[in-house]
Each structure stands twice: as structure tokens, then as C-alpha cells.
Amino acid sequence: MPTPAVPPEPVTPGPPRAEPRPLLTQSWLDLAFLHWEADPADVAPLLPAGTVPDLFEGRAYAGLVAFRMHRIGWFRLPGLPYLGTFPETNVRLYSVDAHGRRGVVFRSLDASRLLPVLVGRAAFNLPYMWSSMSVARDGDTLTYTSRRRWPGPRGAYSAIGVRVGAPIAEPTALEHFLTARWGMHSTVLGRPLFLPNTHPRWPLHRAELVGCAEDLLAAGGLPAPAGAPVSVLYSPGVPVRFGRPARAAQAPAS
């Protein structure tokens, strides 16, 4: 199993880098974080060149994260109330590059607005998918549904229900590892890139899984989960800024 060229940066609840001049702004609201353990050997081939699996105590993790995207905006312009606001559900893995920067790798991003899907695919080479989606709340229970329209596999779906519990005063080391992610690894025009982000520390809650049926992880190239997720969390959300991309695989300066 490949190892990082330098030790990974520490896992920090707050951003490890200065807030960038924003390339993109947005808010992520009403998030449900579901995570399963994954075999690092299954994860490694799914990551961009120049990155390796980021492990916690020797284990890799695969995440299914459902939420409401709110008001995507470019630079310092106001976010879009309609085109920039929609449900989204992501399949994500965890990576580290030659600089030791920890990040997220998306295997799929299902969203219910076609134009942001097209922009995300064209501008950032992200695996955005156009899907029929909904987020509904009934008291302390949220239900997230998604069924893929395009490009496929058509009909790939998820139906997640979580009951929100008490706020978490101090997340565990694993909970920080799974949520405190300050960048995204991707490949654009054959070149690996790191897109940094900043946001306030996550306000996390315990959550109870009240329903989960999905095949998005398998559609993203991962083995289908064999059981219940090992971690279920909820967050009311945070405002987010993405900075300009940087090369991910360049050797660090001496």
C-alpha cells in the first residue's frame, strides 16, 4: 500500500490554512454524515494520481453525505437563490497528497439542478450527476432521497433517514477525521489539483439512523456495505469558502 511522501498534516477542527480569496462561496445545511469502514486496497485505485488513502488507525473510510446546498456564488458575488440551492448527496473517500494535505475525493455528487451539474463536470471534472432529490424534515427526523437521471448508472438511488440527537461537545478523534476536511483532491486536464476550503468548526450532533437503502457506494466503484455504518452524525451546517486550486502532486519545497 503506497504511503504519503511526507507525514500527513494534523487533523484540526479548524482550517489549517489562512482563509483564501474566494473562488466559490456556498453553505452546506442539514448534513447527514454516514460512514463505513473500507479496505485501503479498494480505495487506492479510486483516488487521483499523486494521492494515497488517508487512514485512521490503519483503516480507510467511505462516506455517504446528504445535505442541502445553499446559494452557490462565484468570487464575492451574492449566492444564487435558485440555481445555487438544491439537495445534494455525495459518495466520498479520504486522501492525502505529496504535501501531506488531507482531502476529500468525490466518487459521485448527485444534485437536483442540471446547470450546476454541467458546470461542475466541465469546470472541475467532478463526477456530478443529475438526480431527482428531496430533503424533508418531520420534527427531529430528516429524510433524504435521491434517484439518478443522468449520466448514470441511471436509477442509482439513496433513501436515508436520521433522527437528530444531542449536540457533541467534543467530537472523538475519528469524528474529527471524518468531518474536518480542508480541501478536495481532483484531476483537471490530466493534472492533479488540490482545491482548499475553509469554514467554521463543525457543529455536530449525535444521530440515529432510522433508514438507509442505497446503491450509490457500489455505483461509485466501492464494494456494497456489508452492514450498518460505523458512524452517523448530523450537522445544521456551515458557510464555506473555496480558494484557487493548487497542484496536488508537486514535490514539497526543501
UniProtKB/TrEMBL annotation:
InterPro entries for the chain? ADC_dom_sf, DUF2071
This protein's superkingdom? Bacteria
Where is the chain membrane-spanning? none
Supply the Pfam families for this chain: DUF2071 (PF09844)
Q: Which PANTHER family match?
A: DUF2071 DOMAIN-CONTAINING PROTEIN, DUF2071 FAMILY PROTEIN
Stated name of the protein: DUF2071 domain-containing protein
* Species assigned in the record: Streptomyces liangshanensis
Q: What is the lineage of its organism?
A: Bacteria, Bacillati, Actinomycetota, Actinomycetes, Kitasatosporales
